[in-house]
Design brief:
One of its GO terms (molecular function) is potassium ion transmembrane transporter activity. This protein has about 90 residues and is an alpha/beta fold. The chain has a domain of about 40 residues. It is built from 4 helices and 4 strands; from the N terminus they run βαβαβαβα. Strands 3-2-1-4 form a 4-stranded parallel beta sheet, sandwiched between helices.
């Protein structure tokens, strides 16, 4: 199962960790380079550095091939836009 997680802060990081330990294919998207480096270093995930609400970065994360897309940023507006963009793609 392919899952894209938008936002790899504390919540997104721990969700990605739990799901990757269950052998799901996880891609995380975050605009913060430090969070991306942390995910890359400690998790078995694909990391896309960029704006999770941007169609360009969602396409790079292959949301159209995902079974689930989880928007877990701390900003509700970003989560709504990211969810809508992922649905459109």
């Amino acid at each position: 199962m392919r899952i894209v997680i938008i936002g790899v802060g504390e919540v997104g990081f721990h969700v990605a960790k739990a799901l990757s330990q269950e052998n799901f294919d996880i891609t995380v998207v975050d605009i913060d380079p430090k969070k991306c480096r942390r995910a890359s270093k400690y998790l078995d995930v694909i990391v896309v550095e960029g704006n999770g609400a941007s169609p360009k970065h969602l396409i790079k994360a292959n949301v159209e091939g995902a079974d689930y897309v989880l928007a877990l940023t701390p900003v509700d507006e970003v989560n709504l836009i990211a969810s809508r963009q992922a649905h459109i793609l």
